[in-house]
Automatic annotation (TrEMBL):
Keyword Membrane assigned: yes
Protein name: YtxH domain-containing protein
Stretches that traverse the bilayer: 6-27
Matches recorded under InterPro entries: Desiccation-related_membrane (IPR052928), YtxH (IPR024623)
Keyword Protein transport set for record: no
Pfam families: YtxH (PF12732)
Keywords: Coiled coil, Membrane, Transmembrane, Transmembrane helix
Organism: Flavobacterium paronense
Coiled-coil stretches: 61-103
Length: 109
């Protein structure tokens, strides 16, 4: 995901730089107008970059949130299952202890 978006941003930056360079070379306007156009191009680039960054940030946050929720659910399920298993083991051990106490009581008589 990051490589794909990173390549897209690099391509956008390279395309903008090439476009600005060609615009300057072939500009029939005065220097002040050309500078305004360049500034406008950089403003557009900045806005596009911010928009892509915000989109990437939102997508990443959604994925991490989903992963976090799934992990939390998995841990809760594991703890719940482990708790039931521990209760079963304790019950089994209590039964065996009671049997051993009975056997010991018989031997002591």
């Amino acid at each position: 995901m990051s490589t794909k978006n990173g390549n897209g941003i690099l391509a956008l930056l390279a395309g903008t730089a090439i476009g600005v360079g060609l615009g300057i070379l072939f500009a029939p306007d005065k220097g002040s107008k050309t500078r305004e156009k360049i500034k406008g191009g950089f403003d557009d680039l900045k806005n596009d970059s911010l928009s892509k960054w915000n989109t990437l940030e939102n997508e990443t946050m959604k994925k991490f949130s989903k992963t976090k929720d799934e992990l939390k659910e998995t841990v809760e399920d594991l703890l719940s299952h482990s708790s039931h298993e521990a209760e079963d083991a304790i019950s089994f051990l209590e039964e065996k202890l009671a049997e051993l106490k009975k056997q010991t009581a018989k031997l002591q008589k």
